[in-house]
Amino acid sequence: MRFETERAEMIEVLRQKGIWDENVLRVMGTVERHHFVDAPFVNRAYEDSALPIGQEQTISQPYTVAFMTQALQLKRGEKVLEVGTGSGYQAVVLALLGCRVFTIERHLPLVARARKTFDRLNLHIASKGGDGSVGWSEFAPFDAIIVTAGAPDIPPPLKDQLADGGRLVVPVGDREIQKLLVVRRTGSHFTQQEIDGFKFVPLIGKNAWSNGGK
Ligand code: SAM
Fold this sequence. Notes:
6 helices, binds S-adenosylmethionine, alpha/beta, 214 residues, 27% helix, two-stranded antiparallel ribbon, globular, 9 strands
């Protein structure tokens, strides 16, 4: 099963919902999302919805992936940190946009599975198991940081690890519903834009929610 028609239809849905970045649309039109979801959901892989990936976690809705990636305004060769590897889908999208990707996931079985996917696709993506709410200081600063789980506040180390001119997208709110914050750094100055109405699994960690979530 190649799902080419379904993938093209998904891209059309993203356009209709307002995604305009042709690079993001082109790349998402090539990534085989059906390889990133649990087996029972393969036939639903191109619906615009979040789907289970094990460990009670989800692969984000395609619209959310497209919106967050578009908001980062990435250029080829930029260094990007992702917090919340999950299935690896978002990391693959970032890598195929020509970025150098670093990704962190707290559930080790998901890290192991994502690594196999990266290898199969022959993509060089640096990944590690652990708490991404502290960032990845060894490789900082990053041109862009994307957090794919909802936090109570912006984890301070992630702002610190942004390069001058860097962008950070992070969902912030309560455990049920979040705003997407798009933060830009210029020197020591930060500006912030907020977009309502996103829903993510919780970010669990030192600078996030305490464990007790999933
Ligand atoms: N980006 C993923 C993808 O493309 O499949 C979707 C990620 S899912 C919505 C959010 C992920 O964040 C979950 O896999 C969850 O385990 C992970 N997560 C939650 N808190 C984390 C933390 N402090 N550090 C790293 N990963 C975390």
